[in-house]
Design goal:
mainly alpha; 3-stranded parallel β-sheet; two-stranded antiparallel ribbon; globular
């Protein structure tokens, strides 16, 4: 994750990119990543194909009548192949796991970490459009890497920022149901 353009570079994905944007067929994946600048035509073309792939995957794998859900990483967006607005247009009841990062004490207690969580949650909620369709499972990785006190504080931040489907779903923390 991060500010860089990303995505799948397997042969099938590269061929899909070249088929949709033949003017870039002379570029390898490393050349695309090296030459694309945020917001330019190459960046947008790559993002478009990556977002198409994610949407097509959801369309092909979600059984009719089932509500799909996706996990969006911390600050995840189109440069990572995740166009929440496009997916929500196809699946209005989409559930979105809001990425929050900071899975262990060192990153969670770093200067600006709580604000980074808040910013990511607010960005994703603005794209999801309905707080009832967003949640967080409060990842701790590796196991016990976040102290109980910091886990509670992380939950407070996420609850304050409305990143939960409140009281209707069982939220797991460390593999245990809430309240265990």
């Amino acid at each position: 994750w991060g500010p860089a353009l990303q995505g799948c570079c397997c042969d099938a994905c590269m061929q899909a990119f070249y088929a949709k944007y033949p003017r870039y067929a002379h570029l390898s994946a490393p050349e695309i990543f090296a030459n694309a600048t945020e917001g330019d035509a190459l960046w947008n073309a790559w993002s478009d194909v990556q977002c198409d792939a994610i949407l097509q995957f959801i369309e092909k794998t979600v059984p009719k009548g089932m509500t799909p859900g996706i996990m969006v990483m911390h600050n995840g967006d189109c440069r990572h192949g995740v166009d929440i607005a496009r997916i929500k247009a196809a699946f209005p009841n989409l559930l979105v796991r809001v990425g929050e990062a900071h899975f262990e004490n060192a990153s969670f207690t770093a200067a600006g970490a709580e604000q980074a969580i808040t910013n990511s949650i607010k960005t994703h909620l603005s794209l999801v459009g309905n707080v009832r369709d967003a949640f967080s499972e409060s990842t701790v990785y590796p196991e016990n890497a976040l102290s109980p006190e910091n886990l509670v504080q992380k939950l407070r931040v996420e609850i304050r920022d409305k990143a939960y489907i409140c009281c209707e779903e069982i939220m797991a923390v460390g593999g245990l149901p809430m309240g265990s």
